[in-house]
Amino acid sequence: QDVAGPVGVLAQQLFMLKDAAQRDMQAVAAAKEELSKAYGRLEGEIGAGPWFCGDQFTVADIAIAIPITAANFFQAGPGDDHKRLSEWLDRVMARASLQKDLPEIMAAIG
């Protein structure tokens, strides 16, 4: 599930290119479509528990959370079309460790 590649396109087009006239909106749309497909595959891999590997939050959740959190920043998160993945992301975002560091992370990129 390549989530990082399309997120890189979004970052380049929506964050790095400050002049909206220079942005390739077809590339943005294609990246969002790729993300949607990846989200569908990832939903099929969420375990029976609240996390990808079951009842325990593991490095698998962290590895997947990083690019999906970035996609969410670009308004390309899982959303209602991928409810299980969206609920998983809500659980990730609610973790105390992320809540502690999120304001500093957002300030750095904002």
Write the layout of secondary structure elements.
Blueprint: H1 4-16, H2 25-43, H3 59-73, H4 83-94, H5 96-109
Word description of this protein:
By secondary structure, the protein is mainly α. It has five helices and no strands. The chain has helices spanning 4-16, 25-43, 59-73, 83-94, 96-109. Helix 1 packs antiparallel against helix 2 and helix 1 (4-16) runs parallel beside helix 3. The longest helix is centred in the N-terminal third of the chain and has 19 residues, at 25-43. The chain is globular and about 45 Å long. The mean pLDDT is 90.
Shape, principal axes of CA atoms: globular
Q: Helix and strand string, N-terminal first?
A: HHHHH
Helices and strands: which structural class? mainly alpha
Low-confidence stretches: none
Number of helices: 5
Q: State the separation between the terminal residues, measured CA to CA.
A: 27 Å
The main β sheet shows up as: none
Rg calc:
14 Å
Tally of strands: 0
Beta strand %: under 5%
Mean pLDDT, to the nearest integer, reads 90
The helix content, as a percent range, equals: 55-70%
